[in-house]
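TODO from last week: model Lipoprotein.
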Amino acid sequence: MRLAKALILALALPCAALAAERNDLQSCYTRNGLADIKPAGTGRELVVIIDQTIPMPEDLQRSSWGQIDRFVQPGDRVRLYTFSAFLPGEYQRLVYAGELDMPLQGEVRDDVNMRKLRGLDQCLATQKKAFQAGFGGLFVKGLREARQDIPKSEIMNTLRRVGEDMGKEQGVQERVVYLISDMLEHSDYTSFYAANQIKQLDVASELKLAQSKGLYADLQGARVYVSGAGLVTDAVKHAYRSGKTMDALNNFWAQYLNASNATLEGFGTPSLSTDLR
């Protein structure tokens, strides 16, 4: 009975309040009874989005994890989404949301009880490994659950809804979005395919259509990096993609993101040649 009441109260809370409380990586300060002196984070957030409509090659999976592992530092927030299409059992999920702690420094540290300080330092020393195991495990799972038989890929709608989540967060001054996707929209709004091939995009027309359908997002000034652009499933004819085709795809997403309060900083076709910054 108590559990049922607790669930009802939780469901009655505003979505923003629930999101603010989620931290899948338990704070070392909370664990050691020092939550009242926890330092503020870096204000940075990394948002990783996995498109599960296209299986990624093993080497791309490894390089993508390397990008994330190099970028994330103490005090950063990290979120992980997966998406495919609105089919039974297939939908957008926030599978991880966590924040790493900053170390305790200065006079505040000198005033902490030695036993608690020792527990805090031990926890902080292993927190990155806990992040790697928790986030990393879900990241690999998300990539390996990708299926090429899913008929739709709603990339723009996903970015719009991720942007809505971003708008509810507080305390974030710097955002990086890492999108692992073929970037080939194939939805009821529009399709980047024609006759079972990647089509040569009319960028201006596609941007106008996205605007008319309300598909622009608000990504809160994020810097966006992409891995996997242009990858195709076995069902697509002519696996070769010309430079002209890929340039148009890059151009579309650069302009779409600019109109969505973001900037495209790296567009891996398919491998990303620059580090997340």
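Done. The chain has nine helices and eight strands.
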